[in-house]
Prior knowledge:
By secondary structure, chain A is mainly alpha-helical. Chain A has 12 helices and 2 strands.
Amino acid sequence: MIALFSITALSLIMIFLFIEGISIFDHVSIKEFIFGKYWYPTDDPADFGILALILGSFCVTFLSGIMAIPLGIMTAIYLAEIAPPKVAEIVKPIVELMASMPSVVIGFFGMVVVAPFIQKLFNIPVGLNIFNASLMLAFMSVPTICSISEDAIFSVPTALKEASFALGATHFETIVKIIIPASLSGICTAVILGLSRAVGETMVVLMAAGGAAMIPGSIFDPVRPLPASIAAEMAEAPFRSEHYHALFAIGIVLFLFTLIFNLIADFLSHKFRQVGEASL
Amino acid sequence: MIKKGLFIQNTWFSIFKIAVLINGAALAVIVFFILSRGWRAISWEFLTQAPRDSMTAGGILPCIVGTVYLCLVTILVALPIGVASAIYLNEYATQGKLVRVIRLGINNLAGVPSIVFGLFGLAFFCIVLKMGVSVAAGGLTLGIMTLPVIIGASEEALKSVPNTYREASLAMGATKWQTIRKVVLPVAFPGIITGSILGISRAAGETAPIMYTGAVFFTPDLPTSIMDEVMALPYHIYVLATAGTNIEATRHLQYGTALVLIVLVLGMNLAAIILRSKMRKKLRI
Amino acid sequence: MNKRKNIFIAIIFLLTISSTVFSGELVIKGSTTVLPIVQKAAEAYMAENPDVKISLSGGGSGNGIKAIIDGTADIGNASRFIKQKEVNLAGTKNVYPVPFRIALDAIVPVVNGKNSVNNLTIAQLKDIYLGKIKDWKQIGGTPGKIVVISRDSSSGTFGVWKELVMKDERVIPSALTVPSNGGIVQAVTTTPGAIGYVGLGYLTGGIKAVKVDGVEGSEQNTLNGSFPISRGLFMFTKGWPQGETMAFISFILSRKGQDLVKEVGSIPLF
């Protein structure tokens, strides 16, 4: 029965989050909470609108996706299809080491090295902005996207490949027309899990995104994504105060985001298992 | 036609190669910066002394010890429960709806953002269970966070044990528990350990879950019980870089601490990767 | 299995057995403005009393007072006085926070070292933080976008700034927020168009202090009351302090402690 502990832990976290978070809606309506433009949790009267925070999270995730998805998938294709085994043996550990880089180190790097660099490069007022945070987040989601896509590509039956070669297709044509379609749902799973990691990542956005609770106008604007707000404010919010409940409500939103991402990924990967030679 | 096809292929393959190189370069740049600026801070004193003069001088021993303590508690929490869960899921449970739901739950637990664990840990362990900011609360929070990684790795390891082993053992009159303990677990053991190292190394590098549950800004004495608060490497980097009293003057200490953390985490990972590749070779023979 | 169990037990045993009893343990949390003072004082105090263990964390004044109310710290530092809202909250939990003023401080607006602006009025500062003044040329500086840097809402420095400069109006959302005084110094140093505000103890190279209404933020001008943005620094305890907590606060309020206050750049009480 001890085995059920993990599921108990999950339900405990969920129940706890919901109990603590839901009480904020005694003070503001769900609509005001999600679509409110102003986040002034400690003012009197306070404003608990997280639209700017959600948009902040969305922007950094989206932009990091634009950078990480092609990189991750291309690396995966290279590893699974093109690389000679010796090269793959070197590259794979590199990708794994990227995955294990502590997030605080990446955030630190973004803040100390990348921020002044892009500030000079693009001649912008602040180096701590969406672009910087996305760049760092992309670094963190590439390994996830890469290793899961690689598994998917690797498990495409060799018979399919050989058939394609036999019909005179080049290796590249085979990859584009046969291998990618066959492993598409696996690749999608990889992308979703990679993005879900970016949404929930805290230290990077806390240190490199600038922390301004505004609705961004350009990719060089600073933002305050959801996890950064929780991390920056949870120490000050008195136990069971409105602010505390509001932070838990942000936790719920974040939890729901990743839950939805995971459910989609789970759905896709189950569908993907049925794709075999017969169904193509 | 074929020539043109080959040309397209070569171009694209070069692009793929460039993608790989970008990844490698990104990792190299980060490691290079931390290494080249951090190594000067590293000395025997840095590793064996407490911080002095408002943390602008001295070493990081309390942070190293703190991180090790947090990891120990994490292992104590996550390893037994994780392995037990994996054994249950893989060996005992009938693969029905309940198991599917449990698996989905575990997958979701793996996807929950680390800050949400921190939020939960602060409210539940520190306040509701009255543990306060302590190694125990921080370790428990990290433990729950690491649990899914360990369950996943252990299940994978258990699955790789051929069924013939189990059948042979059962045929000789062993009970199910004896079979698991004497036959299945020893074979799966290296896999479980590899997965656990990976999980723990992730826990060692995490900041968000321990920010408010286990780690504090400054406590120069080494922790003496699991109810003490500690300094921890990742949190130390964060506070030195964002909340220190003199951020520019401690830059070398920040790089130094980052270097120690990377060496610790990447070292554990490298160990796990090497262990696994050795194992794979063994299995192939 | 037994062997492993034994190892686990041994580890737990090691973790707990080493808990030699300390004569005193102090947990101190709160304001990053008070932090340098307390850190210096803690180092000196622990050198004198080696059997006392002090642990410090920041997080801002709000965090310090909250920790007193929640009972998670012995001393809560604050760079502002307790708010009515917090008093009410403490009342509902039967906690009676006791304030000790340990030092004085001025909050000084700072700009990048290369900025030509030397003097700003309170009204100008307010308009900058309201987002009404957006460019340095509007207030006589070299043209360029003003990067407004503010503090997290838990900061006492922010609280005082909001009260004395903003007159309780809201800082624009596009202001960057950093978690500490040190963070402001860091951000203003590296950003040419930036403006921020810090406690007196944080005025270092790379940033330039700006006069407010023509008055320079200094110890003298704070003591004679001519500098408009000044405040006391406080330590709060849950009820009247006892034992080690009292001893530590007495130490800070002693000549020796006040000298340390001066050393880190804040203003001693005497």
